[in-house]
Amino acid sequence: MEFQELLMRLQSYWHSQGCLIAQPYDVEKGAGTMNPASYFRALGPEPWRVAYVEPSRRPADARYGENPNRVYQHHQFQVIIKPSPDDIIDVYLASLAELGIKAEEHDIRFVEDNWEAPTLGAWGMGWEVWLDGMEITQFTYFQQVGGFECSPVSVEITYGTERIAMALQGVDSVYDLRFGGGVTYGHVFHRAEVEHSIYSFEEADVDMLLNLFSIYEREATRALDRGLVLPAYDWVLKCSHMFNILEARGAISVTERTGFITRVRTLARKCAKAYIDQREEAGHPLLAVNWRGGTDR
Amino acid sequence: MTADARRDLLFEIGVEEVPSRFLGGLLDDLARQAAVLLEESHLPSGEMAVYGTPRRLTLYVKDLAGRQPDRVTKSRGPAAKIAFSADGQPTKAAQGFARGQGVGVEELQVQPVDGVDYVFAVKQVGGRPASELLPELLPRLVQSLNLPKAMRWGSLSLKFIRPIRWLVALYGDQVVPFQLEGIVSGRTSLGHRTLHPGEVTIATAGDYFETMRRASVIVDQAERRQLIAAGAEQLAGGVGGGARVKLDDELLDEVNNMVEWPTPFLGHFAEEYLAVPGEVLETTMKVHQRYFPVVAADGRLLPYFIGVRNGSTQHLATVVAGNEKVLRARLADARFFWDEDRKTALADKVEALSYIVFHEKLGTLLDKAERLEKLVGEISARTPGEGGQAGLAIRAAHLAKADQTTHMVYEFPELQGVMGREYALVAGEAPETATALYEQYLPRYYGDALPESFAGTVLSLADRLDSLVGFFGIGIQPTGSADPYGQRRQALGIIAILAQARVRIPLGLRELLSLAYRGYGGRLERGEEETIGAILEFIRGRLENTLREAGFTYDTVQAVLAAGYNRPADVFERCRQLTAFRGTPEFAEVYAAYGRVANIAQKAASHRYNPALFVHEAEGELHTALERVAAAAHRLRAHGDYQAAWRELATLRAPIDRLFESVMIMEKEESVKENRLALTKYLTNLFTAEADWGMLTVAGE
């Protein structure tokens, strides 16, 4: 199965499960959870069902295109459903079958892994899913987002698409993945991996990044003061990305690290609070929507 | 079968995969809480047992009574003279009481209580049937479980370890009907996720285990554990050459708690990875992948591993190949770290410790390493007889934390010390230095091995002293059960090293803590006396626990600690000798003699008496005996032969008794009184060098 086909099958499967198919969010981020379609929608009482591919940048994982498994940017396939359905694990296992992974031919395990994103003030309980010993999915019941209790609880399913594709195609290096036709993942991304590695580890202008972090932080605060939640959140994402590059660059000591995380989290929490208030004022319109289409209840 | 017949109770809580590390504790708690609730319910039962897999917590109670036994209840009402009028007619008070109790007024009985007659309502209460009690009891049981980590799911407010997806509750063949926020009890369970997906109907409680077995679930954890262990041993044996599997109990439990139908399998990895230190390979296998390592007869690691599949042997080759591939990638990472880390010598990594914060207020790990060098030097200089080892110990202190900067320790924190040792050897450091880098972390837990080498002993001690003094010095100390910096473990380590390590450190706690305090050079917030006082108090508590766990009686421990605990080795020795001495006839003599003088001695202003002021010959006699005994006891104590010293003290009983029979201590004449009090004080001091005898409890007192 081509890499792109895997993404399309997941989209089509979750579409059949009544999810909206969203698109990647156009601001750099370290994980699909940071997409506003997850971060904000997990808050408050309104139901939500969404799935999307999210290219996720992790400068510290960059390996100059030399490591077969670790990359600067990988592709998460993200599903958020609120409230979490009772049969969600079966629904998830069926998605693997859709990709050609028949549970009975493998060893599929749910191994405890409680997810936490300190910069987002978010945490949840769940598992990493193992396929014959390899982690292929993060499966989480959100308990808190932005410091607020989640009620109802969303389930988040995050597939590591490269990992799964490597298992399916039987290749040992991510760069050997068939992306589509005769084009490999390496053809598409290898150069970017090399350049971003050099940039993140050696070339990034530390003073400029520190400066930008502060500028973005100020602007996020200013936008929030004017009640502009989503623009403010964009700048929070920018802050987070600046922090990630600075960390990869080795420019942040252990003590400073906590300080930076606290600064991003403080902003993220304020955004969450503002969002909750905004939805409340709007009267939680999604409560009235029939997610399966057809006539309203 | 009558309604009252005994039947088995089955209760299965169906859950999404429970974290393996919590399953054992949850089952224990299920058993505890169930016992409490059954007791409260007054339903007699047979044997009770708990079983568990990742997807179910099961309670099985044999022969649970169908009904509570009937009981007679008796409630006291008003006094008879209030309940009945003079002519014996029931009053309003009696009628009201009878009505309230639900009995006829003519049924009231009169019985005396402390000589006064009262009316009583005596009722025969029929026991309630189990079918009525269980629907209340089982939901309470679910909610009474102590959850190490609780979560919510869906739209429920219920909390559990993981989402509850079904409840099977059968009393014999009858469903115990109840619901928990919409999760309804029934007789439908679920089979193995992949081998038997879908519902399983349990006809009757007694069928449960066999029905689940047919659905590819082995409910009994002991049976699964046995299957895994036997299977793993057989597979390792198949490798040949005396190969065997390293089955560590903790990992075995963890793996067992992750499977419902275990199938162990043998995997292989490339021999070239054996160039990486064995501990690294084992940690990779165990911590990351939950595999059991396979070793040769001589203990050498072999390029095999044993994994356990949650499933059958069908398509096992696919599973093995997948696992081998994952391990290959892990081992490639480990080898990459090993190669990278060795590119610079361990000593060259010390400088980078300045980037790692030990604690905000206590500086970086480089600061710590520098303090350790100094402290190790000072302790070594005061510990004679280890010829030339001091230099190696100081070198070890210099390198002690350098492995914290390596890729390997970053990836596997539990390999700290191990990697220090390996990288030191690679860099050509002395073997003693390398050993000390490993031994600095011993003991890792209560009862663990202690450092053997001189350098390792001093370094381990110094590291713990430095941390304890540092944290106490900035006001961080354990409160209640919270101990985020592991200070209890540090204190226990200090006690164990001073009391039991092969290398004897001749310094007392106070002196060691003072050296460590001074190493901070004015950096700490609390003063030296305050800090050390707080730590000594803290260590006293740990010492008390340690001695109690070693089997010494409460009063022995209290008596010995009251006489001081600056030298833990001596504290243990005193406890041992006192315990032995308590079984000898001389003990009673010492105990009695001490008892005679100790109380009155509290009135003494001084312990210096003057033989010139003696007025009675009994005083002189005691003085003569005392001089001889004091000299002998002094000599014996110096050799640590406390029992012999106490036998000497025992000989003082007779002259002491004579004194007390012959004279009044509290004589009118002030100078004679003071002198006699001083004599008792002197005696008391002579007795209490090793233990406060007054704190001992003696049978028959």
Mean pLDDT of chain A: 94
Please give the oligomerization state of what you see.
Answer: heterodimer
Given the structure, what is the number of helices of chain B?
Answer: 25
Would you tell me the structural class of the helices and strands of chain B? alpha+beta
Count the strands of chain B?
18
Low-confidence stretches of chain B: none
Q: Report helical residue fraction of chain A.
A: 40-55%
Mean model confidence by pLDDT of chain B: 93
Largest sheet of chain B: 7 strands, mixed
The pair of chains with the biggest contact is: A-B, 39 and 41 residues
**Percent strand of chain A:** 15-25%
What report would you give on this structure?
- The complex is a heterodimer of chains A (297) and B (701).
- Chain A has 297 residues and is an alpha+beta fold.
- Chain A contains eight helices and eleven strands.
- Chain A has helices at 3-16, 36-39, 88-98, 161-169, 185-203, 206-225, 229-248, 254-282, and strands at residues 20-21, 48-57, 73-82, 108-112, 116-117, 122-131, 134-145, 148-149, 155-160, 178-180, 183-184.
- In chain A, the strands form two sheets. In chain A, strands 1, 2, 3, 4, 5, 6, 7, 8 and 9 form a nine-stranded mixed β-sheet that branches. In chain A, strands 10-11 form a two-stranded antiparallel ribbon.
- In chain A, helix 6 packs antiparallel against helix 7 and helix 7 (229-248) packs antiparallel against helix 8.
- The longest helix of chain A has 29 residues, at 254-282.
- The mean pLDDT of chain A is 94.
- With 701 residues, chain B is an alpha+beta fold.
- Helices cover 49% and strands 14% of the residues of chain B.
- Chain B contains 25 helices and 18 strands.
- In chain B, strands 1, 2, 3, 7, 8, 9 and 10 form a seven-stranded mixed β-sheet that branches. Chain B has a four-stranded antiparallel β-sheet with strand order 13-15-16-14, sandwiched between helices.
- Chain B is flat.
- Chain B starts with 6 loop residues before the first strand and ends in a 14-residue tail after the last helix.
- The mean pLDDT of chain B is 93.
- The A-B interface holds A 68-69, 83-86, 89-90, 93, 103-112, 114, 124-125, 127, 131-134, 141, 143, 150-153, 155, 167, 172, 253-255 and B 16-17, 19-21, 54, 149, 151-155, 157, 162-163, 165, 193-195, 197, 258, 289, 307, 309-311, 314-315, 318-319, 321-323, 325-327, 329, 355-357, 360.
